[in-house]
Amino acid sequence: MSDLDTFRAETAAWLEANCPVEMREPVVDESDACWGGRNPVYKPGQKEWMDIMAAKGWTVPDWPKEYGGGGLSRAEAKILGQEMARLKCRSPLSSFGIWMLGPALLHFGTEEQKKHFLPQIARGEIRWCQGYSEPGSGSDLASLQTSAVDEDDHFVISGQKIWTSYADKADWIFCLTRTDKSEKHKGISFMLFDMASDGVSTKPIKLISGASPFCETFFDDVKVPKSYGEGISSVVFEVNRGWDVAKYLLGHERSMISGQGGSSGGSLGAKFADQIGRDSMGRLDDPMLRADLAEMDIELLAFRAMAERFGDTFKAGLCHPAQPNMMKYAGTELNKSRYELIMAAGGSEVLEWESDASNGGLTARDWLRTKANSIEGGTSEVMLNVISKQILQLPGA
Amino acid sequence: MPLYLNDDQQMLQDSASDFMKGEGDVAHFREFRDKNCKDGFSHDLWKKFAEMGFTGILVSEEEGGLGLGHVEAGTVLEQIGRNLTPSPFLTTAVAGVEALNAGGKALREKYFPGILSGDSVLALAIDEGAKHRPDQIQMAATREGNGFKLNGKKQFVVQGGSADTLIVAARTSGAAGDDKGLTLFAVDTETNGLARENVRLVDSAVAAHVEFENVIVDADAVIGEVDDGDIVLRRMLNAGRAGSAAEIMGVGAGAMDITVDYLKGRKQFDKIIATFQALQHRMSHLYSEMEIARATVLKAQQMLDDGSSKAELMVSVAKAKAGRATALSVKEGVQMHGGVGMTDEYDIGLYMKRDRGLQEFMGDANYHTNLVAEMHGY
User: Fold this and answer.
1) Count: domains in chain B
2) From residue B133, how far is each of A367, B37, B154, B364 by CA, in Å?
3) Residues B368 and B242 both lie in one domain
4) What's the whole-model pTM score?
5) ipTM for the complex?
6) A253 among known catalytic residues
7) What pLDDT sits at residue A255?
8) pLDDT score recorded for residue A29
């Protein structure tokens, strides 16, 4: 047996022995995600699962051990993911700290910043949110105006962010601020501060899905210390170099959002054939819908292969640096198409908005939520611009 | 195994790329098209394929080949697609060899030397109607003395005119639609009663209509077991479908590259037309589709090489996805070239015609989409 086979067998046995039964039930809605934080809301099994996985470093399996990670190789992390999927183990911790801030700190942070912030993220102690977009700065993010004025040992932040995911529930924020008004891209800094600071307020935004995962976030002369201890600056990388960090992180965000396209599990067609009915040949008895579903099953399997190839080439340093933009474009457009088809196949039953049978209109709300996929984290149109410019090297318009 | 080419596979792809560009590029394609010769490809070039080792990729090392897999065969096929290289590689060295690999040693010993030396050409006699329907094969093979007597018609037998040997799927029992009852035969094209009519296709490939009238073959012409031809057929189809998916992906990638270059050179309204966002977004969408097609094709090839039970599903996914992506590539290519895209002088139209031919080979995107539904049980 190879080392990886041994690792797979041991991992499977450990997961079987340690994953709470509740954490092997399918995820139904967003409330089934465990976010941790200073004011956590846990469902049964969530805290136990998060803690025992964090103790092994497996909330962040491929981070180095000294920062709370599992120190796994790419191949081992892939096996852990495969075994968790096979045994239907839920993700132990949902976290913008893991998905976004962590990779930025691992790349740009000082040793002290990594040692201070990363283990808190890995253990689910601090819940982070991302302060990027502003009312006047969407696709043109670098035009952002939230200012950070240098006042001796601290900065004073004033301005407004929008589309801040779960800002009302977050403990800390990683935030893009303007530290130089005379430069566009080179006048931005990437700052970390406590959402409990005086002058921070949040207001949830009600969406077409009825949910409010996003907030407006206001900064009214918020004092942010320049340092949280020896070597632990509140600014990541350098003052006025935050755009470099933001660009790097957008790459991660784009590849993360792109993963949604392939997250379907089994065959959509098989699922709906059971619901809708079959003809005497066993075929889904709506031929046009059957064709659409089969095409979607192909697209989902194809994108799953693409995601695997992207992950493998990304980790090996073989993929084009702008490839996350392609993944984000393709993955989000596919996810939107998938939900259009899910609504079409579901018929009138998935129109129900509040009934118990529809689980409170879950499918319809999820369908509406997907429409943001190709807007948030860079619109599809911006992705296509980036592919044109950076990959195809088409000259600027 | 990561989903990208390893160093050896990358080296093979590089040498295939140099080889096709050097020996079998679009100018070579045009030369053989305009000669209007019987076979539609250069036998000298086919010999060189053999010297490069390409024809032995799927032949085991003990039998004188390279003992490699579908990923490696695919690297050669992608380059064939990119350069529109005319050759009998797909039918002979990929699908044909895999059919023989599914059969007995005697047949391999008979046919592999000619394939390895580039002297032999195989063609596949499967289709009986305008559309690929291998489950509906009706051609009859009845017992006759020590062997079989074949009667029936086959069409779209690509390279059938130049082939020395046909791999023929016929029914030895049961009725059209039955899983069992098929038998595959290796039939020499010079056998009495076998008549071929060569037809030139839209992409200048040459295919044959083949009529079998009381064609007598020995029992040792049977590939695999009598009535169990579905096993051989499946292996051959998987190889041919994954292979044609790789080739069509190469056609799409080649057409995209040509179009990007054209956009960067063509001026209208005093501007390079590549600067127009209306064209940029369409090209970027196409790039995305071609990338997904590439991942899908490689995944299918890896699964075939691994002997995965899901390989057949992924092969259909790959043929459908690569087919759709390349259809988009050639259509966008001609449109974005404008008027010159309609001329014979520019290459983009040749890619469009090649795409059309490969779409039909071993099942088009619709066929495979239906198969995917069936494999998923709906």
Assistant:
1) 3
2) 38, 30, 12, 11
3) yes
4) 0.90
5) 0.96
6) yes
7) 62
8) 79
Categorize the per-residue pLDDT at A31 as very low, low, confident or very high, splitting at 50, 70 and 90.
confident
A300 touches B at CB < 8 Å: no
Angle between helices A323-346 and A268-276 (to 10 degrees): 10
Q: What share of chain B is helix, strand, coil (3-state, %, to 5)?
A: 55, 15, 30
Residue B2 lies in a domain: no
Q: Determine the residue type at B142.
A: T
Which regions of chain A does DSSP assign to beta strands (E)? Answer: 128-131, 147-151, 154-165, 172-178, 188-194, 200-205, 214-225, 235-236
Residue A385 CA: distances (Å) to CA of A30, B276, B294, B376: 32, 11, 22, 37
Task: Give pLDDT, residue A396.
Answer: 84
Placement of tokens 């040693």 in the chain: B105
* pLDDT, tens digit (0-9, with 9 covering 90-100), for B300-309: 999 999 999 9
Domain that holds residue B140: 124-227
Per-residue confidence (pLDDT) for residue A252, from 0 to 100: 73
Q: Based on the domain organization, do A177 and A257 belong to the same domain? A: no
Helices (H), B189-309: 229-265, 277-306
Please name the residue of chain B whose CA is at the shortest distance from the CA of residue A293: B373
Q: Does the beta-carbon distance from B369 to A293 stay under 8 Å? A: no
The pair phi, psi for residue A124, each rounded to 5°, is: 75, 25
**Interface A:B, Cβ pairs < 8 A:** 141
Q: Exposed, middle or buried by CB within 10 Å (0-12, 13-18, 19+), for B297?
A: buried
Q: What is the CATH number of the domain that holds A72?
A: 1.10.540.10
Angle at B92 between CA B90 and CA B96, to 5 degrees: 100
Phi and psi at residue B322, to the nearest 5°: -65, -35
Q: Which two tokens stand for residue B11?
A: 């080296």
Please answer yes or no on whether A282 and B378 come within 8 Å at the CB atom: yes
pLDDT in the model for residue A190:
98
